[in-house]
Amino acid sequence: MARRTTAARRYAEAAFQMGKEERGLDRWDRELGLLRDLLRDPQLRAVADHPAIAYAAKERILRATAGTEIAKEPLELVLLMIRRGRPRAVEAMVDRFEELLRRERGISLAAIRSALPLQDDERESIVGRLGELTGTKIQTSEQVDESLIGGVAVRIGDTLYDASVRSRLERLRARLTVA
User: Fold this and answer.
1) Fewer Cβ atoms within 10 A, N terminus or C terminus of the chain?
2) Which residues partner with 162 through β-bridges?
3) What pLDDT digit, counting tens, does each position of 124-177 carry?
4) Radius of gyration, CA atoms only, the chain
5) What is the distance between the alpha carbons of residues 160 and 157, in angstroms, rounded to a whole number?
6) CA distances from 61 to 37, 40, 43, 45, 150 (A)
C-alpha cells in the first residue's frame, strides 16, 4: 500500500507541475476526475487490472472509452500508470492532485460530522469559525453521525476539532475513573 501511495504522490505532483506550467490546472482537475470516474467502472477496472490483457488492448479500450473530451496529457499520464502496473493508484493520484490544487488556492477541506443535519446558519457559523482558525477558505463535506449524540466533529487534514457530546461524556468518564 505504501508503494501505491508513493507512486500516486509522485504522479500527482508531476501532473500538478505540468498543469501549472501550462496554466491549465482546472482542465487537469476536470479531466483527471473524469478518468478516475471511468476507472471506477467495474468492467473497465477489471480490464486495467488484469495482468493477462496486453497493454495495447488496455490502451485501445481506455482511449475509446475516454473519447475526445479528455486531452492528450492527462490520458497519457493515466495510461503510463496502467502500463507500469499501477492502475489502482490512479484514484489516490487524483485525490492527491486535488489536495495540491486546494493548497495552491488556499482552500482547506473540512469533513464535518454532526449528530443531526446542519441548518444553513449553523453551517455558515462553523465554516466562518474554521476559516478564522485556519486562515484559509473552507470547502466542506458533511456526514450525519448519530453516535455523536449531539454537537459536531470536524477534521481538517490531521487536525480534529471535536465538540461532540460523545467526546465530552468520554472525557468525563475518564476523569471519574481516574479519581
Assistant:
1) C
2) 153
3) 999 999 999 999 999 999 999 999 999 999 999 899 999 999 999 999 999 999
4) 21
5) 8
6) 15, 14, 11, 11, 49
Per domain, the residue ranges of the chain are 2-102, 106-178
pLDDT digits (tens, 9 = 90+) for 64-79: 999 888 999 999 999 9
E strand or H helix at 70: none
Q: Residue type at 114?
A: S
Closest CA to 96 of 3, 171, 10: 10
> 2-102 architecture in CATH?
Orthogonal Bundle (1.10)
H helices of the chain, in order, are 2-21, 25-39, 42-49, 55-66, 72-83, 90-104, 120-134, 165-178
* Residue 2 pLDDT class (50, 70, 90 cuts): low
Contact 115, 148 (CB under 8 A): yes
Polymer length in residues for the chain: 179
Q: Where are the alpha helices (DSSP H) in 42-112?
A: 42-49, 55-66, 72-83, 90-104
Answer yes or no: is pLDDT of 5 > 80.
Answer: no
- pLDDT given for residue 178 in this prediction: 82
> Considering Cα of 79, then 37, then 105, then 96, what sign does the dihedral take?
negative
Residue type, 143: Q
